[in-house]
């Protein structure tokens, strides 16, 4: 039966009208993976030399045992962002004499065919056989190999479980990413914990207590079984539907957005779109990572001018507007025809976009307030660029949205995905990033930077206060291009 599943998936691939494009992408990805494989293999082969240079006063086994768990932590972070969910169209098989457990086992086991599962063996096993094997013997080597395999299985199925849960509730992904970021920050920035010490506490003990190998084995099996149960419980469409109906809440139940009526309802639905889909969610995650962008400038004495504060403030408070907004209205490409015939006012649709950008930009501005540690002028500049982003950049993004005719597939990841990217996106990024400096630059050269900052703030505030006027302008512009946009979105 497994061969039948594989045969059906191959036929579906070759019979797809996008086969040529898929093959080209797979060839490029294959070459990239081969290049990465060669680099990781070289790093694994010379890992003893690398550790000897980094830790000249320690036995090689000590830093080696200390980095394994750190690797798996970053591995989990990369899996959450890049690892694809294995899929199988189970509906055609549900009425056939195929057991439910067999379908679920096929889905669960096919998830192990990920290139992420190869890297730890390529990276760590050369060191184990070169350094640990001669001194410790075959049993200890076997314990290390099985432990690495156990943590690899655990990471594989934990990432898949979190991504599947995120498809239902986008907050799962954000909370998971935040926890990982706090763990990493707690070690490397705040020094509250030591990941290296925790890693050595386990892998160092393996040298004298190989029975501890049972811990990663149990963790891996438990996470596999948890995935198995989750897939089994959600195999049938009616199960999924029943679950969603019982736990459904109106989008206007979001306290902040409920006060905006239909506009708040539309904004809440778009927030769900952002959180539940891979590519849109990556725009939000990238924005959160940009919150550390100020550390590059403010902790370095070489970047002390106000121009750097303008640049950092614009990106940190407006990166979501730039990154997510450049594909507007491509995020709604799959149901854009429905918007054309729906009774929803397009003015409300535009206002919902404004509300979405304002809400997320406000959250990002609040997250940047700790940079006041570097001086009140930093915080004031961030606020000025926040006004610019919600008052000017939002309008510019929505103006260019009426000229974007490229659809997006929300189910696809963001890594190496150029779908929807065209000249419009490149043209859009230029005025978004350059315009503030066109205003600020002349005054900075004349030694009057405060006037430049005040002018940026005034223009941004004017954009916010005249938003209703710009909504009408954008609505009129949209009506002249709506059918052209819809026709572009229909081309797959």
TrEMBL record:
Among Pfam families, the record links this protein to: DUF5687
Official protein name in the record: Uncharacterized protein
Key words, A-Z: Membrane, Transmembrane, Transmembrane helix
Q: TM spans, by residue?
A: 23-48, 60-82, 103-125, 137-158, 170-190, 202-226, 282-299, 311-333, 354-373, 379-402, 423-445, 451-470
Q: Which organism is it from?
A: Mucilaginibacter ginsenosidivorax
What InterPro entries does the record point to? DUF5687
Keyword Transmembrane in record: yes
